[in-house]
Design a protein that fits this description.
Structural class: alpha+beta
Shape: globular
Number of helices: 10
């Protein structure tokens, strides 16, 4: 039985919107996915995606755990906290017309990147439970944004090709690299592998080599101000924007600068405690990670990933298989400590769904 690809259109009801796409797929397509043992979920958006099945299951096992988890990152990155990405008048990538409609959502991008949200995940369908599509920026100016997600049912997955990508990085400790940079040649390499091995449905996994430390991978919008200013500031100080929001709570932002960080830490601890109360983490890894955030700077607070997946499909152009991604999606490497020889290694794995 060949893999089955389906599409769902979603309508967010709030800026933070959580929908069960497994239930919606059943409502829309009936038992179409029932014969399959796995489903690959893909989001083309940079502020909406999925949690891994293991993390999602643990969080959703006791009521509002997913919401409490997201509250941690919304506390660290409050809306309207002075993000450079939101200063539309200095965004060189925007036309005057785009500036009129572009959402100010720097907080949503940073929460997506650091909160371990993924554009693509695979779920074992034999395990019960919802599959949450998490939208961090679902409503803009009172209007729901247009959202869509792709589902691919499959039974097995086989590796058909492996490759290695050498990525030159800055000698500066904190830097961000677009893996879509034409000079790296990643996408032509992937296209060649897809064609050579005749893959119609599958995925590309990009993963850091085992020896790569103080670095991570994500998929997001590679916008200069977001990457070079906002994200870099977070790597230096994860609570920078939470403290910035506190400063602006007073008429004079400089009135209590020494207290702002203390208030930000306090708010984060309260958010963590609410999460722990709901899902009973105790002295868990999540709690220890967040505890590290109270030591500034603390880049290890960020739940960033060592691997990311990209959907491979021939649906958009029958007979021409390619990586399927949104207009602004870019695989990105982030580092917060300089690498030996100013070089990092990324493994590229192409698989076929059966």
């Amino acid at each position: 039985m060949p893999p089955l690809e389906l599409t769902l259109e979603l309508t967010p009801k709030a800026r933070l919107d959580i929908q069960d796409v497994r239930a919606q797929a059943a409502d829309t397509y009936g038992d179409a996915l029932a014969p399959y043992s796995h489903c690959f979920y893909a989001s083309p958006h940079t502020t909406a995606g999925y949690l891994s099945q293991g993390l999602a299951a643990r969080l959703s096992a006791k009521g509002p755990g997913v919401g409490r988890y997201l509250e941690l990152f919304r506390t660290a990155f409050p809306e309207g906290a002075g993000y450079k990405h939101d200063q539309l008048d200095i965004r060189e990538d925007l036309s005057p017309e785009q500036r009129e409609v572009e959402p100010t959502n720097g907080d949503s991008h940073l929460a997506f990147i650091t909160g371990s949200l993924r554009p693509c995940v695979s779920y074992d369908l034999s395990r019960p439970g919802p599959v949450y599509f998490i939208d961090l920026d679902g409503v803009c100016a009172g209007k729901p944004r247009s959202r869509v997600t792709t589902l691919v049912g499959y039974d097995h997955e086989v590796v058909v090709a492996r490759a290695q990508l050498r990525v030159p990085v800055s000698p500066h400790p904190i830097s961000v690299v677009s893996l879509k940079d034409p000079g790296l040649g990643l996408y032509p390499q992937i296209a060649d592998l897809i064609k050579r091995y005749d893959v119609q449905k599958g995925r590309v996994r990009l993963s850091l080599a085992a020896g790569e430390q103080a670095a991570s991978l994500t998929v997001n919008e590679y916008e200069t101000l977001l990457m070079q200013h906002d994200l870099a500031e977070v790597l230096r100080n994860p609570l920078h924007f939470a403290a910035e929001k506190v400063r602006h709570a007073w008429n004079d932002p400089r009135a209590l600068p020494g207290k702002a960080l203390d208030y930000a830490k306090y708010d984060l601890v309260r958010a963590l405690n609410r999460l722990v109360d709901v899902i009973g983490l105790g002295d868990s890894r999540v709690e220890r990670i967040v505890a590290r955030a109270l030591e500034v700077p603390a880049a290890r607070f960020l739940r960033m990933k060592r691997s990311v997946d990209l959907l491979v499909s021939d649906t958009r152009t029958p007979g021409q298989t390619a990586v399927v991604e949104g207009q602004y999606q870019t695989p990105i490497m982030v580092q917060w400590r300089s690498a030996p020889d100013k070089m990092r290694i990324v493994h590229v794995t192409l698989t076929r769904f059966l």
